[in-house]
From TrEMBL:
Range of residues in the leader sequence: none
Enzyme class: oxidoreductase
UniProt-listed InterPro entries: FAD/NAD-bd_sf (IPR036188), NadB (IPR005288)
Classification via Gene3D superfamilies: FAD/NAD(P)-binding domain (3.50.50.60)
A Pfam match: FAD_oxidored
GO terms for MF: oxidoreductase activity
Alphabetized UniProt keyword annotations: Oxidoreductase
EC assignment: 1.-.-.-
Protein name according to UniProt: FAD-dependent oxidoreductase
Domain of life the protein comes from: Bacteria
């Protein structure tokens, strides 16, 4: 077995993992970064989810390096895509003109920008990327992880990585059980957290639905896929709270739980510049075509795109039949989730009611070339909820809920390592819950949520921090995950420089101030200006 070593090992190459690696590399450290899928970038790329961001993202509320990622995406379009002159001059270019975000784009563009951000460090030899590799074992000495065993996704090759600090940036917190770290899953009990929306009894297997996203366009011809084997099951499937079958235009409104009917109009010919991508004003999911559109053809010169391209991450592909964490049949559930998505596509092509009274849109074409998945879907499932460390600080609903906090705003932490903002947005769950959607105040990320209670050199760098099932719904989105990863990477580098530990940094007023100063110099915002939540 091959053994390699570095100052830090970052396991998982999603947004948190990339941000963690960049923070360590900027600090002069050597890094091994691993990723299970073919693309770095996680939810932004291999999971094919356009960024979910807050109202003020163009002005403040994200780290400088996350802003560099966003700027790089826009620059890539201007440098390489046949934009119209009007689109090229659009300062806040939204290539897809989707309603979910002010920057909806094709996943491959983010891959290119991320690779460019990492390229100098690969060239210098200080960064080694192992891809596609995933963790399969860990060696532990007391409260320290001494090595992690990594296996090639497609073969028998294994590598042992040794590092002073190990960062778990996997989508499901895979390292936590391998290292014997204490963690929680699912819904905590109200008696433990005090959260207004929590149940009386803990439900560790009650987790948010996963989704397998896919991209489609609409062109001439019949592009109907083969009927999936499980189509009849999914065609008849109806959650008790849904108001209709899952494969329909009707479903609960996340914010009110009222049963509403979405519209669907391929290539509506709308003006991209007039799209208001601000979820404070409008969740944007009325017309599913424009909701998560990632290429608006009218942003490009005539003929460049036959059609808009839209990303299907809609309620009808939320998989509710079982969790995919800490269960023996996780692979079976993930396979069924992919079947659900293919069934949704087949329904759209053959049976979906049209506004003109007809049924089916055979012109819908699966764009697997856009998402990179072998079966035409996204390479990876969209995992909304991870294992979460038992941390020094656990963020709870009452720390950020507008209903609880009112005009006081979210709790301010003395050990803040960043900021974030998103409504608590819980999708229907494997335990039978409907949406839980709670207005939030702009919040901070406490360092204590990044430090395990016991482990000394294992740090979370993704969705596996000290949140609850409920608050994970606000902390799980793209810019917050990036900020978490960046803070974790910077913490590991700081501890190596000062020959100290994460616990000591948080316990020492002087060390904490020095670490926060380093974050600030690197462009990490620790506090919000005077803004109100939504």
């Amino acid at each position: 077995m091959v053994e390699i070593s570095a100052d830090a090992l970052v396991v998982g190459g999603g947004l948190g993992g990339v941000a963690a690696a960049l923070a360590l590399l900027r600090a002069g450290r050597s890094v091994v970064l691993t990723e299970e899928y073919d693309w770095l970038g996680g939810q932004l790329t291999s999971q094919a989810v356009p960024p979910d961001e807050h109202t003020w993202v163009e002005r403040f509320g994200v780290t400088a390096s996350y802003r560099a990622l966003r700027d790089g995406i826009r620059r890539y379009y201007r440098d390489h895509y046949p934009l119209t002159e009007r689109a090229r001059a659009w300062r806040e270019l939204n290539p897809g003109a989707g309603h979910v975000s002010k920057l909806c784009h094709e996943p491959r563009v983010a891959v290119a920008v991320i690779e460019a951000m990492l390229a100098p460090y690969r060239g210098s030899g200080r960064l080694r990327v192992l891809q596609p590799y995933r963790p399969v074992g860990a060696e532990v000495d007391g409260d320290r992880v001494t090595a992690v065993r990594l296996a090639h996704r497609d073969g028998d090759a294994q590598i042992t990585a040794v590092a002073s600090y190990v960062l778990d940036a996997t989508e499901t917190g895979e390292l936590l059980p391998l290292a014997g770290a204490e963690y929680v899953t699912g819904f905590e009990a109200q008696g433990d957290t005090g959260e207004p929306s929590a149940p009386a009894v803990a439900q560790p297997m009650n987790m948010q639905a996963v989704s397998v996203c896919f991209a489609i366009d609409h062109v001439d011809g019949d592009h109907t896929v083969d009927k999936p084997a499980s189509y009849d099951f999914w065609r008849a499937y109806q959650p008790p709270f849904w108001g209709d079958r899952l494969l329909s235009w009707r479903c609960p409104s996340p914010r009110t739980l009222e049963i509403v009917e979405r519209s669907f109009t391929p290539n509506p010919g709308d003006d991209p510049r007039l799209v208001e991508a601000d979820q404070r004003v409008n969740p944007g999911d009325g017309n599913l075509w424009t909701f998560r559109r990632i290429a608006a053809r009218d942003n490009f010169v005539p003929g460049a795109y036959e059609s808009d391209i839209t990303l299907v991450n809609w309620p009808m592909i939320d998989y509710l039949e079982g969790p995919v964490i800490d269960v023996p049949d996780a692979d079976q559930h993930l396979a069924k989730a992919r079947e659900l998505s293919l069934s949704a596509l087949y329904w759209l092509q053959t049976e979906a009611p049209r506004h003109d009274g007809g049924t089916g849109y055979p012109g819908l074409r699966l764009r697997g070339d856009v998402t990179g998945g072998a079966d035409g879907l996204a390479q990876a499932p969209y995992i909304r909820e991870s294992r979460r460390i038992r941390a020094l600080t656990t963020v709870t609903e009452q720390d950020l809920s507008v209903a609880v906090r009112g005009d006081k705003g979210a709790v301010s932490y003395h050990d803040s390592v960043g900021v974030g903002m998103y409504r608590i947005d819980l999708h229907p769950s494997t335990g039978g819950d409907n949406y839980i959607d709670v207005a939030c105040s702009p919040f901070e990320i406490p360092l204590g949520a990044l430090i395990p209670q016991r482990m000394t050199n294992l740090l979370p760098a993704c969705k596996n921090i000290g949140t609850t099932h409920i608050t994970n719904g606000a902390y799980r989105l793209h810019p917050v995950e990036w900020n978490v990863g960046e803070a974790a990477g910077a913490l590991a580098a700081f501890c190596l420089d000062r020959a100290t530990t994460p616990h000591a940094v948080r316990a020492s007023e002087r060390l904490l101030a020095d670490y926060q100063d380093r974050l600030t110099r690197d462009g990490v915002e620790l506090r919000w200006p005077d803004v109100t939540g939504y």
